[in-house]
Predict the structure of MYO5B protein.
Amino acid sequence: VEQVFKQLFYMINAVALNNLLLRKDVCSWSTGMQLRFNISQLEEWLRGKNLQQSGAAKTLEPLIQAAQLLQLKKKTSEDAEAICSLCTSLTTQQIVKILNLYTPVNEFEERVTVAFIRDIQMHLQERNDPPQLLLDLKHTFPVLFPFNPSSITMDSIHIPAALNLEFLNKV
């Protein structure tokens, strides 16, 4: 059950983040607020179902950071440093793309300046990020089966001759 929800939450993260990276109309402060609220509801649901150890919440980290990026101030060099230290699960390319797509929804907000984006790129130039922008929707986590040791010892097992396993030798 834990592995299924980890995979499901990864898919939620990948689809939502990819949509954010491809659609200018959703890159705004209000979308960041809405995303953060919805993510907190998912995290609360995980806690309520006692699934917080499944790793499902961790798969949402890039989306959480993208939501926070949309909500942060984007003007000064200190803001750029804060963004760079906060957005560790996002690649440089993803951060820059979100900043380029950022669209103010009211007169109190301003567009992100080109100088600010260059400042971000300068701060992040030493990162060795993968070149891909979008998350892989086909990524699957390996299925892990717990090991439950048997009380039956190997020397007490009788192998029927009908199985044609004569090449097996008891040691």
